[in-house]
Amino acid sequence: MSWGGNRYSWRSSAVLVPIIAGLEGMLLTFFFERHVAKNPFLRLSIFHHWSGIVVTLCTVIQGYLLFAMIYYLVIYLMACQLYSPILAGTGLLPFAMTVVPVSGVTGSLITRIGRYRWSIWLGWSLSVMGLGLLVLLGPGTHPAAWVVVFMCAGAGQGLLLIGHSVAIQASCKTKDAAYAVSMYSFARSFGLCLGVILGGTIFQNFLRVRLGNDGLPRIIATNFEAYIPILQALSSENSLKMQLREAYAWALKMLFATSTGVGFFGLLLSLLSLTIGDYTLDTAFIPEHSLRK
């Protein structure tokens, strides 16, 4: 998928064949686990209720958004703000340092009040708002502004990390709790992979379009990370430098705008109160495996 529209046409067999083969492989895996395997590693009984399905889909979407933000916020800081790699990593701290504390506080509140849907709804609302604000960022954005935006997006992700984990366990049978945690980890990791692939494809295609419209070499989009040091080394008086910064910023705006739409879809899923049940967390744990003296 990362080749689509960038290295090869979307109609090219080099793009379509791997995508189709991958989808068929996933379908065959689910069929095997459902009808053939005696001890399936994918416990499909987790999805006995719509809540499990919806939470898993939301987790995949959240994984995509999380990695797309982590990776491309660094690109923004380096290509648009012209920060060095060390300063760019430091600039990402407002996002990262918000995710962890918010996750901890959310877990404590869920344990205290015994309800979790509020964390999912609030988390998606903050994530969508943060992504929408990221669209406004540009080369001239003041650091104080993007720090606040980063913190808003990070808070939303922190809420969702715990909220989804609790929801998928609460919605399944108690004997499937361990398998639910594994499915949550798998869904989030799958979303992270999509963040790498789809995020890069979206960004590169929009950057290629902008470079072509500005009369600049489109090959820059293929190796946009490697070209950043060259961009930073250009003289401030060179008009090419500002053109490239604007091109990177515009492609990032399109990526974040697309991600905002994806996040809004996740928000709509989370707002379906009839599908994400507010199950009680006060249940006896009945595991399939236990230690015997």
From TrEMBL:
Molecular-function GO term, any one: transmembrane transporter activity
Subcellular location as annotated: Membrane
Alphabetical UniProt keywords: Membrane, Transmembrane, Transmembrane helix
Gene Ontology, cellular component aspect: plasma membrane
Residue ranges of the TM segments: 12-32, 53-74, 86-106, 118-138, 144-167, 179-203, 255-276
Organism field: Metarhizium album (strain ARSEF 1941)
Primary site of residence: membrane
Regions annotated as coiled coil: none
InterPro entries linked to this entry: MFS_trans_sf (IPR036259)
Membrane topology value: Multi-pass membrane protein
Top-level taxon in the UniProt lineage: Eukaryota
The protein's name in its UniProt record: Major facilitator superfamily domain, general substrate transporter
